[in-house]
Design a protein that fits this description.
This protein is α/β, with parallel strands linked by helices. It has one domain (3-213): Rossmann fold (3-Layer(aba) Sandwich), CATH 3.40.50.720. It has helices at residues 12-23, 53-62, 90-110, 112-115, 141-161, 189-202; strands at 3-7, 27-32, 44-47, 70-73, 122-126, 167-172, 210-213. The chain has a 7-stranded parallel β-sheet, sandwiched between helices. Strand 1, helix 1 (12-23) and strand 2 form a beta-alpha-beta unit. The longest helix is centred in the middle third of the chain and has 21 residues, at 90-110.
């Protein structure tokens, strides 16, 4: 039985990942911003705002002494309404970077003692193909830039944790029908979650530091 920690797991892909791991018999801890407003969820629910250092520290304190086998950094935001290269809400841009880029780094650093307690721990950051530098589109610049930076965070974590046996991956969840993806998206969140779990299952020291599509195919940085 593994302990799986998922940030932003109260809906969408995070929720369906939590269901899959709970059904597999794993212990699941969900970090969400407003537990009091959450539906019934599969696992233990703790308050967590990945954009707030004090909240992340409290979350880590609640898990003190427990080994974490899998950390899935799922929490994220789409960013402000105005986010083109020609007209930008800079405050909203900064908030997007804070949540989507610094958030996974904050949480991963805070849970390093937990990850180090187990053999072959895994860290996953859900990023996006929209952050790939080989994908040259310009809409939603704050979101794209935050995910491109999260990809680099993934590479750096993988490099620094390689000798400790912790494997790290960036995963594109696909364009899923969630609150963020909208009703016209390509795939159901359940399909995305199943694919992501398969990618995590296959993640190893030999494949650490790579960028994957939810279907298991590699994506260019």
């Amino acid at each position: 039985m593994s302990l799986v920690v998922i940030t932003g797991g109260n809906r969408g892909i995070g929720f369906h990942l939590a269901v899959l791991y709970a059904e597999a018999g794993d212990q699941v801890v969900l970090g969400i911003r407003r537990p009091e407003h959450a539906p019934i969820l599969p696992g233990t629910v703790l308050p967590l705002d990945v954009g707030d250092s004090a909240s992340v520290a409290s979350f880590a304190a609640a898990l003190a002494g427990r080994g974490v086998d899998i950390l899935i950094n799922n929490a994220g935001i789409i960013g402000p309404d105005r986010q083109s290269a020609l007209e930008t809400d800079f405050e909203g841009f900064m908030q997007t970077l804070n949540v989507n880029t610094l958030g996974p780094l904050r949480v991963t650093q805070a849970l390093l003692p937990n990850l180090r307690k187990v053999e072959q721990a895994k860290v996953v950051i859900l990023t996006s193909r929209m952050g790939s530098l080989s994908y040259a589109k310009s809409n939603q610049i704050a979101y794209r830039a935050s995910k491109a930076a999260a990809n680099k965070v993934t590479q750096c974590l993988a490099t620094d944790l390689a000798q400790e046996g912790v494997s790290v991956a960036a995963v594109h969840p696909g364009w899923a029908r969630t609150d963020m993806g909208g009703p016209s998206a390509d795939i159901a969140p359940e399909e995305s979650a199943r694919g992501i779990k398969a990618v995590i299952d296959a993640l190893s020291h030999a494949t650490t530091g790579r960028f994957w599509n939810f279907d298991g195919s590699p994506i260019a940085w």
